């Protein structure tokens, strides 16, 4: 069964569209299970009805014609219960619904399993059998459940591809197709999608028609000749080093490039009106599918050769193609994996949004996007990238959501948000030089998180009082090697000078987890629980010592440097780090540099550290909570994983209780405590943190004006009462609603960004 399942998934993955995928499913499942009927019913989001989309065994004319209400019939029962239903005599069941046009009166045995993807019921997979045949046993039920689970993602992807193309399941025009990912950079953008493809990846080649058949044929012949010459050249160069049987492998490649072989089939596809790259993709996938389904192991391996040959041909077809991209006035750049180089190709002033299938909020591109103020969504698992080229897109960087082909109502809704944000920022500029102080004179320092000089410029214009977190890994990420001491010193000096005499807190190198250096890769089964942060730099003191030396020398004459140690879980890590820092300090002083010993602090981002605050505070000058990591470790949720991101919540009662404890324990031993993370930049979160007693809040520059405005407008007594109220609640969503309501009642409703539910309500209203 495993081999059947594997070949089925491979076939469905290479289907050109949803209908072909569904036809493959019903045909292969019927054959594998030896049943008389296999059908797929999909739930149409527009009508909330199940539609018969494909069948093997029922009358084909019923496909697309038969539909059931959400809870109607046995199909509706399977979907609403979200579990399999296995019946020996289906017509006797009270929920049985008969459709004469299907011809299903001949079949009595019924087994239906739901097709569920990310908690959403997509449809129901059904097999049926005549009265005289057997009832479906447990093994068959388990197999069908496995098929459904394996294919749910593929069906969701194919369904989305069709919807983005503008058609619903019923063939009607589709609007407001949405996808959820991870927020990369805040803000809203409306623009035209420009897809940048990674080179030589057949899977992401879009299906496009062509009218210039002769031109495409010429391009393809040129690619075939170029690949043939490449292979002949390599074969000739290696001839003296290879045995005859190994040399024969090159002959196999050359035979596959003959006119009567694969190139001939590609040429025929091009003559049918398909562009060369799409024709190549179709033929290669057909060959691969054919070879992988063979029983002979040697022939199965030939699929690898076909793929390799396809990539070589595609690489030649794509030469220079990216250089001819046209960027519209409002470009939303889309890719499987965005790179900084891709951002640099867009003409200045035309980039309004970014969408990336891979990546996280901590990736280099996300950091750049926040610095540039470009709304970004990352980690869009099921998005059919190649369908977004030229489509109008809405990028919601607040919620981590995008909409394709938006309706006029949804476009107006998001345009209003854009206009409000611009107006709000302009109105808050008057607060730049005013202190962040409550109405009853409680003072809080507002700091910024930075990584680039562009961050600094925006931070100063927003009235930041210093840097609460400078990510020193950014200079490491933009190099193809470790930066030298002098290079690091120049980066650090820029930041220290820009904010002098205000404090600049520099976090020592924090790599690992989802932050990797191309020249220092860390491959681990579970990177977030592995070798990261201080663990890496203490294991490599040569990196740590050079970095601290560069920081200290950069601070000469300014003396506003503070050093912060990330991912501390043990007292011994602090003591070992302090030993190295003091050693470097004395060495730099001996070299003649007139510097002061900087304050040293630790980041509290591991649950173990929450219970050692007093012990940590005895050894350092300050503490700073990394609320993003602390939240994901407390909740065991990777916030950059779209599959579980909805479980990550900064307002979770456990998170709030931990934050209260940290502030109380730090102050009990007389040490200041700050926080850097998304919660500090949220107006409601900032109020709760201020009430807890946090001395400083560090955030992205864009959040600073709103947070300052809210804190200056309330009393600490009011905020403390709000905190006491929410600490009695046991649901993060209820807590968030309670805080939002308090802000609205206090006149700050305009600072609350509408969530997904609001956007979806607009979308649904437009559809209805």
Characterise the protein shown here:
The protein is α/β, with parallel strands linked by helices and 768 residues long. The protein folds into four domains: 1-165, GAF domain (Beta-Lactamase, 2-Layer Sandwich), CATH 3.30.450.40; 177-195 and 327-424, Phosphohistidine domain (Glucose Oxidase, domain 1, 3-Layer(bba) Sandwich); 213-318, PtsI, HPr-binding domain (Enzyme I, Chain A, domain 2, Orthogonal Bundle), CATH 1.10.274.10; 437-761, Alpha-Beta Barrel (TIM Barrel). The strands form three sheets. The protein has an eight-stranded mixed sheet with strand order 7-14-13-9-10-11-12-8. Strand 10, helix 10 and strand 11 form a beta-alpha-beta unit. Helix 2 runs antiparallel to helix 4 (138-164) and helix 8 runs antiparallel to helix 9. It is globular and about 85 Å long. The relative contact order is 0.08. The mean pLDDT is 85. One of its GO terms (cellular component) is cytoplasm. It comes from Marinobacter subterrani.
